[in-house]
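Quick entry, no commentary yet.
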Amino acid sequence: MKPKVTMIAWNQNDNYVVTAVNNHLLKVWNSCTGQLLHDLVGHEDEVFVLETHPFDSRIMLSAGHDGNIFIWDITKGTKTKHYFNMIEGQGHGAVFDCKFSPDGQHFACTDSHGHLLIFGFGCSRPYEKIPDQMFFHTDYRPLIRDSNNYVLDEQTQQAPHLMPPPFLVDVDGNPHPTKYQRLVPGRENCADEHLIPQLGYVATSDGEVVEQVIGQQTVDQDEQGLEPSILDGMIRQLQLEQDQRNGADQESASSGPQNGEGTPRRG
């Protein structure tokens, strides 16, 4: 097999360069002389993640498709910590990316199974209030483009960044309780009735019909016993915002300086 470099990284003070090769070895080089200093052995598949510590020039993190995460002392050529990303019932999960926190006390990784792995010092209590499975109900919604080639959500015909805050659901699309919905930015202070999503039946790619979140249920529809419609809610919200803007424009026009004939002066 012809060796190929898959990733390269400089350490924090630029004295060393670490290269990942497709024969699963990491090589540590002197950046000034080009001398090979160490071969780091441990990975069993290709490595595409090399992350240097933010302030400790000795430390380098590597992670690969074999599910292994290593923390190396590159000055000595030794491993200081090792973690294997084993997923129960599914084998290992390939690690696709890693990043250190600015203080160097934590690092986070993402894997091929959609997991976010957080490592570090201190207490894990702040993370215990978070459910194991967290997705937004809009994560896999199809997009379309309008006549100006702008992206729109296919279901609501609205720009994604203008849509209401999404709901948190599990991997099967089932909504989490209201206490979790308040973790979504924009829903922190919502009343309980605004945290109850509208459920509907959606066909999956393999033909199975499952119940999933499709939008927000409005209070008016609940009281009238009508079938909830996310589009109706969107239209009402857009109309309300437009009325508020028009009212503000009329108020500013009427309060501006006027000439003797009662016509507003041009700015």
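second:
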Amino acid sequence: EGRETRLRVVLRVRPLTCTETRRGDQQVVHSLGDGAVHVSAARHDATFGFSAVFDAGASQEAVFEGSGMRQLVELAMDGFSCTVFAFGQTGSGKTYTLMGPLVQSQAQPASPALLGLIQRSFTCLLEQSRSRGSDLTLSASYLEIYNEQVRDLLSPGPPCALPLRWSKTRGFYVENQLSVEFESLEAIVSLLLQGSQRRRTSAHALNRHSSRSHALLTIHIRSRAVSAHPAPGAGCTCPSKQGTLCFVDLAGSERVKDTGSSGELSVEANSINRSLLALGHCISLLAKPRGKRTHIPYRDSKLTRLLARSLGGSGITLMVACISPSSRCLSETLSTLNYASRARRVTTRP
């Protein structure tokens, strides 16, 4: 607590798709073990190091256990503000890593082996609550940032834009967002699927289910230890802890000419790329030693405002960089790897 803590950055390399294999794309990314990955292609030969690297054969469970996600859940229960966000090129497996298959619904749930970090974290949270014997109050809010508008994915009716405010005590926050209490795994998974189905997605040349918005699912955790033998007539004097666990599924960076986007899709892509550029700029400045930092421009986008505490404040953050191993995606892959390498130098003070 209060000590400088580096952002934990892990890398996930998805398998080559059937389309990429048929097309004859070469695999240019290779895991070297011990958190190192090597990129080898014409005019490019580079090695990058991360806290962990998950190659194409890694299971969803291996990513959950090896990324440090379980520890993040425990820290959130201890009252810390914890964030995990997935980023990378469109079609690189961000939403799959966080949520599992896109086709699941309440009537057709995904196979347990394919569940993502979010569902596994819910299970871990409820298990920890039972084993600690703490009195836990859980609630969730779910937002998307679409074309620089913040929209509530849980409130009934069509999504409408909500104002983003700032206060000295809370920092940046969304006014009038709906927060829904839940007690069971079924209830929170139902909320997750309900919100995800309302999120903006479109099909283009690189991805049939491209996320057109950044999504932020926040779990608010209020816990109070229950005294096993309270003194007669004494009220519960156990202090409560309030922590948060925020999952951020960033829309994928993309080149408009590669996706064949036009019209509204092109406008969406430009908005996505502008906010990701603002995020990258903030990360570059935060990666400098504290004495050499200049002003961090969080106000440049709605995304950076909402992630300000996670990146440069008092939170604990896990970043999952997702990449394609295909030679066709080389420039975007190198961009994601450089972005992730800079993020490893960012420190916060939880």
